[in-house]
From TrEMBL:
GO cellular component labels: cytosol; glutaminase complex
Subunit structure: In the presence of PdxS, forms a dodecamer of heterodimers. Only shows activity in the heterodimer.
Gene name in the database record: pdxT
Protein's name according to its UniProt entry: Pyridoxal 5'-phosphate synthase subunit PdxT
Active-site positions on this chain: 79, 179, 181
Amino acid sequence: TPRIGVLALQGDVREHLAALDSAGAEAITVRRAAELESVDGIVIPGGESTTMSHLLGVFGLYEPLRARLADGLPAYGSCAGMIMLASNILDTRPDARHLDALDITVRRNAFGRQVESFETDLEIAGVTDEVPMRAVFIRAPWVEKVGDGVEVLAKVPDGPAAGRVVAVRQGQVLATSFHPEVTGDRRVHAYFVDMVRHRRHPAP
Ligand code: GLN
């Protein structure tokens, strides 16, 4: 059973723990470096990215987490978690730090100009088959640019934000603008648990 940590400084930690648990992982909270050392994968929850960035520093987790990610630790970030994993962030505070594990440019609170929160049915490559997934967006970012090697897994199908990229994967790193942890649908978490199970270790 893969042991997957949920970064537990701020945000919807409990929801991710429950979702991982029902997707077949052993889920633990991560607040210190020793806990981070013990996990096979990490989830960065939704919440508020500038607060999370600040707390990563306070808890002394910023460097250790960056190091494990650089070493290929599988990671999944939802919403604020996507922002934390990104390499470039638009509309954030100048002092906010991020983890630079995913070669994307994200815009914070991007949908907010039209509507703060909304739901839509999404098709997600590799995750949904015939049945789309209900996706909940709460002051969500979108992906404005993807680097080489980043796979686009989902786009908003219609409405004012049609075509916006909201799920991506690059190697061992997965991110969604929306919050699958708040619905009963476990398919994104099951997909991530699978990524952790099949992690390819680089040759020594
Ligand atoms: N708007 C938040 C941020 O910028 C993210 C919102 C969320 O995680 N639901 O961090």
